[in-house]
Amino acid sequence: MRCPYCGKADSRVVDSRAADEGATIRRRRECTGCGRRFTTYEVVEKVPLMVIKNDGRREPFKQEKLLNGLIRSCEKRDIPMERIVRLANEIEREVRNTMEREIPSKKLGQLVMDHLRDFDEVAYIRFASVYRKFADIGNFITELDELRESKKKKD
């Protein structure tokens, strides 16, 4: 690692510890040339993930967009922000674990719905109403009936 002070390419690691819940390694380094210390962070490189929209456009996957959708679905519910962020991380991890570089937005939306179904029923219905573009009350009733049926099967 090149020293930010003197530019020498040799340094030694003085201390290493996990940061960001183990997603990052924080290292304190000491330059063998000037003796000054500096901090570096090591993270796993993420493969770029593209979302294929319904009209065929491709855009980069953005966790912030996923998180905002989840927050809107959970609005005015007694759900701690920490749980919502964990859910967003879990969904992103599941998508990235497929090792595919592109995911259709329909598949991503369905994955979010699958996770929300068990997470919070009201948030699930809210998300479904936007995602499936409910046109009338009949769509809500149909979705609620399906939710009840799946809940009965689990019990």
TrEMBL record:
It comes from the Bacteria. Residues 49-139 form the ATP-cone domain. A zinc finger (unnamed) spans 3-34. Binds 1 zinc ion. Negatively regulates transcription of bacterial ribonucleotide reductase nrd genes and operons by binding to NrdR-boxes. Belongs to the NrdR family. This is Transcriptional repressor NrdR. It comes from Selenomonas bovis.
